Amino acid sequence: MKNIIIFGAPGSGKGTYSAEIASRYGMGHISTGDVLRAEIKNGTELGRIAQGYIDNGQLIPDELMIDILASKYDSMPAGQGVIFDGFPRTIAQAEALKTMLAQRGHDLGMMIELIVGEDVLMERLLRRAKLEGRADDNEETIRKRFAVYHAQTEPLSRWFADEGIRHTFDWSICKTKEGMLDAIFKEIEKQNA
Fold it and tell me: Which one of 48, 134, 177, 186 is the catalytic residue?
């Protein structure tokens, strides 16, 4: 099974679709947020270093994040493929991930881009904020997250296209979660045939 990178704007369903794909194909699932929290909770050396950056209000450097992901990746069963959920977020991170995988004789595999209109994303994120009681997820904060996504992360879409591994799935065409999953599963099976 090829590695898969799930890509999309905040609220596009990356975590949901990653879990479904991992379950169906028996793949490893690396959610950068989950991995980072686990490293910190377990008091690993990488976790302690990451906590130092967080405590000082700094972003975790790409090199440290790649080291953390490499450690997690190396702990996964070989040959099943891994889903990267929430990483990479910049071209520099994508290049670092490509290098890390190449050092292990692996490649990026395929990138699944979830395309969802901002009006749908806003509705989803506001609903999720209410359900989870997240007062920090208000319309103003969400718009700022969209702006950061468009400025820093969205350019990765072209990078993945240039790598020849980008596969897009548009909510406005698929209409439902099941429709999106069906289209994604068909493409994964085609790419792994």
Answer: 134
Is 143 among the residues known to form the active site? no
Verify whether residue 145 is a known catalytic residue. Answer: yes
177 is catalytic: no
Report yes or no: 171 and 119 within 8 Å, Cβ to Cβ. Answer: no
Give yes or no: 104 in active site: no
Structure tokens that stand for 63 in this block = 């090199």
Superfamily name and number for 4-191:
P-loop containing nucleotide triphosphate hydrolases (3.40.50.300)
Contacts with 64 (C-beta within 8 Å, 6 or more apart), sequence order = 46, 49, 50, 53
Q: Give the model confidence (pLDDT) of 107-144 as tens digits.
A: 999 999 999 999 999 999 999 888 888 766 788 888 98
